[in-house]
């Protein structure tokens, strides 16, 4: 609602023109509707079973409510004349004459009259009346202080506000403003004025929230209803994977299957053995992959395709995983029961090697601030290191397995690892509290959602389980259909707002499910060996990558029907998502 800014002193808000009052009160009028207007010539709406006129084919929209909400929206958009004309032509006032009088009294600062009028509005809940009276008299109190009428303010506090018996702690706080010499000091800051003296228009907004919607239509009600309808359409759309700004009011929203990355746009063939792991950087500009060939590769992602940036050599064993630093400037690579190496993404230089005598690393991860790294070891412990290699802490005991993923939550407090064949450990390193997710089947891998609220767990029985890990862990959904009998198969969250689940599979396919419904919506053929890992670009919901035993990485994008189909290119830069 428009009006005087909050940071103006109350004394400057005392004089308002009639036009400003009309605008601030959303321009509603107390005139009786004009007889014989053009509305009489319009077709009459249907009658509902209760006798009220309704509009719409379903008979659930009450005409009076509908018109009032439209009028409210018109006034809020600044269409004062249109809103007033709608009230007049329809004969349906936005507010009753009593409510209009009440609103004008508030905006004009007629506090005593407004409290009396409040009781004539027809409110049945005495608590609401008292709470609204409290807000009004509080504003009166502040404006008296602004006018340096401390005794009048004290009298209002003692004889009008306190007897309401509402919010005693606030009453004590108000009394402190009288005795505090800083309140009436001429050097007080505008920020203090903003906090202590709400504008009258702001007070009116607060009263609107407090009073029943039938008395005063809530601000932004039409916008809320329209947004709610769009969100419901979006959430019901199985293939929704495009930005909300592309939704339109002109037609019901429905995405097609073409919003899911399902066409292999590029095949990357730089690895010389099975590709076991891959992961996009947080900003989506890079892709890192690790292989049984003892190397990792940093790929650069462009609009037109993916190209090799650096091949990282130095490990003496196959690489089981990689992990991007929070700022994507560095990369960790973990050899299978070997060492963890930290690399500079820009130069491809190895910055440090983390190792522990007699032990091998099995997993790696970063703290959210990028100051420390974590690693799981083959003695089942988890260690935390400074970047220079100094060991800060080590959690010994049954903390991890020789084959395990490692994740750190976004707040940096929890370390997540497979601690037993059928259990995942959620270790709060600050509170030193351990929680567990117990499964009936052997756990092979897991993935943490971007918001750190959900965990995706791959099981030996060819199921993927989605767990909510806020508070006590709860099983949310199950995903089935992919094949897993011998190998470690990894899955991931992805798409717009991570609304989809993707997974590799031993039958050479990539599987994609709708996260909310659990329905399998796509299988992507193309690989000639088991698909070990998938990663969805967090910055581009239309780009998915898959790594396979066939030694290749496939980059999947939209199946753009307007682009002539081509065989996916394996060398150089190739078109991506229909862009050359």
TrEMBL record:
WD repeats lie at residues 268-301, 312-353, 524-566. This is CTLH domain-containing protein. Interacts with RANBPM. Keywords: Cytoplasm, Repeat, WD repeat. PANTHER family: WD REPEAT PROTEIN 26-RELATED, WD REPEAT-CONTAINING PROTEIN 26. Residues 1-36 are annotated as: Disordered. Its main location: cytoplasm. One of its GO terms (cellular component) is cytoplasm. It comes from Gossypium mustelinum. Residues 105-152 form the CTLH domain.
């Amino acid at each position: 609602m428009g009006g005087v800014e909050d940071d103006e002193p109350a004394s400057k808000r005392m004089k308002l023109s009639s036009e400003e009052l009309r605008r601030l009160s959303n321009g509603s009028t107390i005139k009786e509707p004009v007889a014989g207007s053009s509305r009489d010539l319009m077709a009459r709406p249907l009658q509902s079973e209760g006798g009220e006129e309704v509009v719409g084919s379903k008979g659930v929209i009450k005409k009076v409510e509908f018109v009032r909400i439209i009028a409210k929206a018109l006034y809020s958009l600044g269409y004062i004349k249109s809103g007033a004309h709608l009230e007049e032509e329809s004969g349906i006032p936005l507010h009753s004459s009593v409510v209009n009088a009440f609103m004008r009294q508030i905006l004009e600062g007629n506090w005593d009259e407004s409290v009396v009028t409040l009781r004539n509005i027809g409110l049945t809940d005495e608590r609401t009346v008292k709470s609204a009276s409290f807000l009004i008299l509080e504003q009166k109190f502040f404006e008296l202080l602004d006018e340096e009428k401390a005794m009048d303010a004290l009298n209002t506090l003692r004889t009008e506000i306190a007897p309401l018996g509402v919010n005693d702690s606030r009453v004590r706080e108000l009394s402190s403003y009288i005795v505090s010499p800083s309140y009436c000091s001429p050097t007080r800051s505008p920020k203090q004025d903003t906090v202590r003296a709400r504008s009258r228009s702001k007070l009116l907004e607060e009263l609107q929230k407090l009073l029943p919607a039938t008395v005063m239509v809530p601000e932004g009600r039409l916008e809320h209803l329209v947004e709610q309808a769009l969100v419901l359409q979006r959430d019901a759309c199985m293939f929704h994977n495009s930005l909300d700004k592309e939704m339109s009011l002109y037609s019901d929203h429905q995405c097609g299957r073409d919003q899911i990355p399902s066409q292999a746009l590029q095949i990357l063939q730089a690895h010389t053995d099975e590709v076991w792991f891959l992961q996009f950087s947080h900003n989506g500009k890079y892709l890192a992959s690790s292989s049984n060939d003892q190397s990792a590769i940093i790929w650069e992602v462009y609009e037109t395709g993916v190209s090799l940036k650096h091949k990282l050599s130095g490990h003496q064993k196959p690489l089981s995983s990689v992990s991007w630093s929070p700022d994507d400037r560095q990369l960790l690579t973990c050899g299978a029961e070997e060492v963890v190496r930290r690399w500079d993404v820009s130069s491809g230089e190895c910055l440090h090697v983390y190792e522990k005598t007699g032990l091998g690393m099995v997993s790696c991860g970063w703290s959210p601030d990028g100051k420390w790294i974590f690693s799981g070891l083959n003695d089942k412990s988890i260690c935390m290191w400074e970047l220079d290699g100094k060991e800060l802490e080590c959690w010994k005991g049954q903390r991890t397995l020789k084959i395990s993923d490692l994740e750190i939550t976004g707040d940096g407090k929890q370390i997540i690892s497979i601690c037993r064949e059928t259990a995942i450990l959620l270790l709060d390193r600050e509170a030193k509290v351990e929680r567990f997710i117990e499964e009936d089947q052997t756990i092979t891998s897991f993935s943490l959602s971007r918001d750190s609220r959900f965990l995706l767990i791959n099981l030996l029985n060819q199921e993927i389980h989605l767990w909510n890990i806020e508070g006590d862990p709860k099983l949310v959904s199950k995903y089935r259909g992919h094949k897993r009998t011998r190998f470690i198969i990894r899955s991931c969250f992805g798409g717009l707002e991570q609304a989809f689940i993707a997974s590799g599979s031993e039958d050479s396919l990539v599987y994609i499910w709708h996260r909310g419904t659990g329905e399998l919506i796509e299988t992507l053929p193309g690989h000639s060996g088991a698909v070990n890992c998938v990663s969805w670009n967090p910055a581009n919901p239309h780009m998915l990558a898959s790594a396979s035993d066939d030694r290749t990485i496939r980059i999947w994008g939209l199946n753009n029907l307007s682009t002539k189909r081509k065989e996916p290119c394996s060398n150089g830069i190739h078109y991506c998502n229909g862009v050359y």
